[in-house]
User: What shape does this take?
Amino acid sequence: MSVLEGKVLVAQGGGPTAVINQSMVGAVLESRKFPQVTRVYGALHGVRGVVEEDFLDLTEATTHNLEAVANTPSSGLLSTRDKPDVEYCQKIFKVCQAHNVRYFFYIGGNDSADTCRIVNEESDKAGYELRVIHIPKTIDNDLKVTDHCPGYGSAAKFVAQAFAGINLDNRAIPGVYIGVVMGRHAGFLTAAAVLDKKYPDDGPHLVYVPERPFTKEQFLRDVKRAYDHYGRCIIAVSEGIQDANGNAVAAQFTGGEKDAHGNVQLSGTGALGDLLSTWVKSELNIKRVRADTLGYLQRSFLGCVSEVDQYEAREVGEKAAQYAIWHNLDGSVAIRRIGDYAVEYFLAPLKDVAREATSMSDAFLNAEGNYVTEEFVKYAKPLIGKLPVMERIAAPRVAKAGE
Amino acid sequence: MSVLEGKVLVAQGGGPTAVINQSMVGAVLESRKFPQVTRVYGALHGVRGVVEEDFLDLTEATTHNLEAVANTPSSGLLSTRDKPDVEYCQKIFKVCQAHNVRYFFYIGGNDSADTCRIVNEESDKAGYELRVIHIPKTIDNDLKVTDHCPGYGSAAKFVAQAFAGINLDNRAIPGVYIGVVMGRHAGFLTAAAVLDKKYPDDGPHLVYVPERPFTKEQFLRDVKRAYDHYGRCIIAVSEGIQDANGNAVAAQFTGGEKDAHGNVQLSGTGALGDLLSTWVKSELNIKRVRADTLGYLQRSFLGCVSEVDQYEAREVGEKAAQYAIWHNLDGSVAIRRIGDYAVEYFLAPLKDVAREATSMSDAFLNAEGNYVTEEFVKYAKPLIGKLPVMERIAAPRVAKAGE
Assistant: This one.
């Protein structure tokens, strides 16, 4: 066991998820059990709250309150898009030093893992003992090492339920439907659109992700074929689809606004959906074409949580406290699949998870680049948990009056 | 009791809802109890399926299957946008005559009520005894006579949960968020965005509906004031907002596509959200502005049903069969509120519900035309049923190290 006596500091970074508070509360409640933990602080607005010393004392939050927060989507400690450099990270560990923080848990994606890595290195250099654990979260499922990321399952469930409903709607009043799903470089969330298909003709019939080059020609050919076959067509498309040169198809229509990380804004606009919709209307001469951009609902809709995702998010938070305080280790908590469906947790080196993200493997995408494989469905289905009832009428046709 | 021996015919028209199948199944199962009902048919694709004699024999559907269908969103019998004229309605009753249909139940909005009215008149003129009952459904809540419409509660719950999640997300990473909600002439669904606000600073902070003239000047003034006050701003806006001359603000950006009823397409495009977003960015110089159009998810998302809406939709279906077969009556099933919260059902004349729709009363909207009143909240809250847990962290602030 670590004999480091001092405080625990928890923070949440990047885009919220439906279960990020489970991880936070898991880390907090587990940390509160250890006698060498003098206090458990939560930083408001992620690392920004650390450098500004904007802390809540979570040792004095009630268990009921924390459990209610755990079941609340989005970052209860609020978040930040700040991406710290070395100087910023030095400030972080200096604040930790000033408050005798000895355990720092940061819940986030690959950028947050990188922050953990730098803070860990800088505190080592300064000779200040600080255990740093990165707790994984992302709806994009694009972290390296881990089998999958907490946060993905619930967002994937939202997308699956959205497209299952859209499919029922589109059967009732047929046409072409384009649903634009979050995902800048990784198509995992878009691919989840297929996870609640039940009958062979259910949509989505086409899936386009950033991992495969997108061309207008193939898209229109695919839509025409599906529409001719089914009398309707549902398409799931990632906001980050790219042409053969790696340029985002959406980029030219968003006015080029860039976020703090220098990325072009893809979410929070209907431009890509409307563009694809216009192509289908004008070039395929199909009249009823509708495009929705699923937008921020994917990561924050109240009341759509995968129970699997929920307990895994809780557990990675608990494991963070255990690795740091029982074992005196630094690293990134990761998930290994050991059964169908069963997982175990392990600690990966921070440098292996930091910075670079991953995307869908070739085995998850078909050769034509317009749909997923059975292997993807097998991978992703256990992560979204139980789905609502959905059934078609089973009744015989009636003969016409003259027959 | 009606002594008319013959068949029951059920059909579903217009846009699907989350609970329209409850009404259908309620009517079918209740009808199957009467000995004078020889068969219960379901027409596929609404009135189009009637004139084309495209029928399923629901007498031979199992109860388990029908109950599962009742719990499935969207129209299980599929739908149509056809709006029958007199000639079309003559065809409907002639098909009814050919099949000895004596009870026709049509689930839909005001256009469907009008179809019921004409079919009823034409069959009367022809001396063919046909009981016709309109069963109300619409997510827009814009039917006359009834206190509210089945279908609205579940769509309102979706909108309330969407904005509750958006509010949590927007607290974590502040900015301006614009959510465009369905509603061409009635703002009920947009107004539902406020129904899951818990803390005083929760969004949405502004609500714009078609019942009040929308001006760019007021909109920007309102957004600036809210943003200055809260450091963020969430806006719920109806797709059908109009300028002082009654022109849809969205109309000029959709290429003018019109549906079968001659209405300009408002849904299935992100144009209105993007327009408002551009105004806020350019004129208020606020950087992080996001717009989502909630789109078709509002009426078809799998797994978001108000339990109140669910049983009321079931009951209006059952009552349709009872009014027609026990009492030999024609009309439109309506809901009267008799307690907080309790309702009773009654039968309104078809002509009172047919054709013209209604919209939000003045008492539901504030004087400035940018928000709802407490009276609206009191009216709508019981309709959306139970909401998920949502709580903020309650913990003391920590003093800074130097303090």
